[in-house]
Amino acid sequence: MTGCRLGSHRVIEPKGALPQAAWRLDNSSRAYANEIACDVELLNIDSASFAQMRAQHGDDARAIAAHVVATVDERGKQHNAVTGSGGMFVGRVAHVGEALRARNDIAPGDRIASLVSLTLTPLRLDAVERVDLATGQLHVAGTAVLFESGVYARLPDDVPTAVALAVLDVAGAPAQVARLAAPGMTVCVVGADGKSGVLACAAARDAVGPAGRVVGIVPHGETPAARLLVEHGYLDALIVADARDALAVLQRVPEALPSLAGLVVNCVNVGGTELASILCCADRGTVYFFSMATSFTAAALGAEGIGKDVTMVVGNGYLRGHATTALQVLRNHPPIAAYFGERYGHVPSGEPSA
Ligand code: NAP
User: Fold this and answer.
1) Which of 60, 107, 176, 269 has its CA 20 to 30 A from that of 198?
2) At 10, is the secondary structure helix, strand, or coil?
3) How far is CA 279 from CA 2, 219, 258, 323, in A?
4) pTM listed for this prediction
């Protein structure tokens, strides 16, 4: 039996939808000829989604595990109904359907990371073994399905799994910065000390060169990542401000961004930061909203309301070659690789859960 290459055959509700937009997917282990079935080990929950669950359950790892299990049971996929976002998985290929056997980049037994969102990935969870509150990664036992159109990457040998997953989850950010930034440009990264922010800063530093300028905005100046970015010269200036407070950011702009940024990259995991990002952008510049907490309405009406002629780019998580680009940024920048290793490469803590 061959399914739709985009996965519509797995949609239960509403009929006629594609999997990302669907409320509920068929996550059964029935094998279609053009699907790849995987045994899942690790989920990297999207940061906006994990922050929402942390806001609801605090540090209660069991409650977060139960929340994820309930979502997956109800929807057949990890699709947070509040944030609309998902994440990605690491797993081992269990079966490659006969229609895809000509592919030479994947075979049963390979360990891969999915590069498509969990919001469109049929997922079944048998257990959540550990929740890492510090990283938003869940050690699980379960199964997932990749459609014919699905994108994946074989895990690299030289990067620990949890680090690779953290980097691949946000691979679109450094890859898009490498594409949009140019020598001599000023780039401003909002939420500079998170996963995507740190990688975006490194990609920006590489792209703008010595004549360019990279500025970061973080809510607290003393985080290890903020220190790293300043001490290793990835940032020329650091604005410590809550990006939800557009006026507070605006106050710091004349000093930190004497000429406004040609490219602003929004990497935060909370809502309400659209206007501050737009205010940091020069006329005819580009604001790249990588954040899943971005409101289209707030961005569009906010820019209009303050008369800003800027191009706004929605953070498409996929760019051709983005996984390779993101892992290369890590390899090219040993201080950043060391930081990711320390932050994500450890054995996760968190209570075991049913
Ligand atoms: P992360 O590691 O959790 O980083 C989030 C960053 O935002 C942190 O540096 C955090 O600072 C900062 N932040 C939070 N509140 C802030 C505020 N009020 N003002 C300024 N900065 C603030 O998240 P991530 O994994 O890099 O993901 C970032 C965003 O990208 C999330 O919204 C995520 O959902 C989204 N995402 C998008 C895609 C896509 O395909 N477009 C893919 C994956 C993720 P502190 O840590 O100091 O609080």
Assistant:
1) 60
2) helix
3) 50, 17, 13, 31
4) 0.92
CA distance 174 to 332: 13
Phi/psi for 98 (5° steps) reads: -60, -25
pLDDT at 92: 97
pLDDT averages per 10-residue partition of the chain, 354 residues: 96 97 96 96 96 97 98 98 96 97 94 96 98 96 98 93 92 97 98 97 97 97 95 97 97 94 97 98 98 96 97 94 96 96 68 38
Site residues for ligand 1, CB cut-off 6 Å: 46-48, 85, 169-170, 172, 190-191, 193-197, 217-220, 223, 242-244, 267-270, 273, 290-293, 315, 317
Specify the ligand 1 atom closest to the Cα of 46.
34
- Atom nearest to 314 CA in ligand 1: 41
Closest ligand 1 atom to Cα of 217 = 20
What's the CA gap between 77 and 72, in Å, rounded? 5
Rounding to the nearest 10 degrees, give the CA dihedral for residues 326, 327, 333, 335: 100
Helix-strand-coil split of the chain, %, nearest 5: 35, 25, 40
* Residues with Cβ within 8 Å of residue 347, at least 6 apart in sequence: none
